[in-house]
Amino acid sequence: xxxxxxxxxxxxxxxxxxxxxxxxxxxxxxxxxxxxxxxxxxxxxxxxxxxxxxxxxxxxxxxxxxxxxxxxxxxxxxxxxxxxxxxxxxxxxxxxxxxxxxxxxxxxxxxxxxxxxxxxxxxxxxxxxxxxxxxxxxxxxxxxxxxxxxxxxxxxxxxxxxxxxxxxxxxxxxxxxxxxxxxxxxxxxxxxxxxxxxxxxxxxxxxxxxxxxxxxxxxxxxxxxxxxxxxxxxxxxxxxxxxxxxxxxxxxxxxxxxxxxxxxxxxxxxxxxxxxxxxxxxxxxxxxxxxxxxxxxxxxxxxxxxxxxxxxxxxxxxxxxxxxxxxxxxxxxxxxxxxxxxxxxxxxxxxxxxxxxxxxxxxxxxxxxxxxxxxxxxxxxxxxxxxxxxxxxxxxxxxxxxxxxxxxxxxxxxxxxxxxxxxxxxxxxxxxxxxxxxxxxxxxxxxxxxxxxxxxxxxxxxxxxxxxxx
Length: 470
Ligand code: NAD
Fold this sequence. Notes:
The protein is an alpha/beta fold. It has helices at residues 39-58, 61-77, 79-90, 94-112, 148-161, 176-185, 204-208, 222-232, 257-269, 289-301, 321-337, 367-370, 386-394, 409-416, 451-456, and strands at 7-9, 12-14, 18-23, 30-36, 119-123, 127-135, 138-142, 165-169, 194-196, 215-219, 238-242, 247-251, 279-285, 339-342, 357-360, 377-383, 398-399, 401-405, 423-426, 441-442, 445-446, 459-467. It has 2 domains: 7-243 and 444-465, Aldehyde Dehydrogenase, Chain A, domain 1; 247-433, Aldehyde Dehydrogenase, Chain A, domain 2, CATH 3.40.309. The chain has 15 helices and 22 strands. Strands 14-15-16-13-12-18-19 form a 7-stranded mixed beta sheet, with helices on both faces. Strands 9-8-7-10-11-21 form a 6-stranded mixed beta sheet, sandwiched between helices. α3 packs across α4 (94-112), α3 (79-90) runs antiparallel to α6 and α9 crosses α10. The chain is globular and about 70 Å long. Nicotinamide-adenine-dinucleotide is lined by residues 142-146, 169, 171-172, 201, 204-205, 208, 219-221, 224, 227-228, 242-245, 276, 372, 374, 400, 445.
């Protein structure tokens, strides 16, 4: 029997105005039915969040911290169930789904330890200037489908800690784990503090222009991010937009291909390449190009791609049909513009499976190199001149992450500082944590998530400036 999934509105689990099938990407069968909210239910969620805001924002931060610890405990207690549903709806292997749920708990516990203390900027006989951080009001968190549970939790934790109330809206193809989150924390939070609604890609605009929502925290594609910015302009909402990326990695001529291949392979193909900060363009110096291509192709050829529920599976399917078709298109275009040395043959079977595909002898100016494939396809580009390759890495409109690989850390550092992206890693890629800010550059977004700076994005700064002689 299928589980009954319900929306969370004003502290109640409720049926949706409509229903929708959620597919398992590993076999395209119906995994579950999920409720669909309509505009009335969206309005109920916004009204509930507004009603809850005054009391929640006045709740001492120590009490809000305790609530987040209870949320983290609930995630831990329900980890097995969430893990299985996550693999079912998203496709990733069970072990990686368990890791995602574990990370969600870690993010929640981290923000439960954070403070938003006021500071005295200056004080003398005449004047005292204080800086305070106040919650914004109702925040709407809009999520993508690649890490549906982790992203829901890492929006929830800082938003609620800061004293805001929240409406979460998962992506239509991965709504189930977010709905479970609502179910497991419902009784821990006052009614209306957290609301979870679902849609079929049709409620985003109503949220982003709503006059009673103060901030949008969005993770998703750059085109949708631009639509949100335009939609939010009418009410001048605060925005945090974590968008697409096309992370370049530059391998210097002194790197050891055998030593770095596993790190590069792992960060290119993690979650079957469906990671905003996956390594997506690999630039390798000509002196080690052949050997690094061979190492990475060997790993890709021996990788086990399959149903995430089956033991031994290392990489799951692409999450949904539209994305699968997009990735297949990139594979086809790469066949014309480069040489496929691993993968490339889409299996004729149910499920959105794409073998890990490695493409060499491909250049800038091709779709696979210039665009964001968001799937398990890695182009490896040869370079000879370091200045030229830095310019090529920076030519992208995106600027989420990037990396430099070298046996000489000083040299790598010099190159890293010239990469135009929010994060640059050295001899690694994709490393992150709740205490490390995650800032996008260029069209990869606006604002910052995580770290102290990410928490502060859920607040408004207020200056109190006192004339002591008045
Ligand atoms: P998407 O932009 O299509 O959808 C994301 C969310 O936005 C979904 O919940 C969707 O329903 C909603 N949405 C759609 N239209 C909307 C509108 N007009 N207004 C408001 N909301 C709307 O993205 P996706 O395909 O789900 O995710 C893949 C993309 O997300 C990739 O580009 C990837 O790089 C990016 N991503 C970025 C990060 C990051 O932190 N920078 C993390 C994960 C994914």
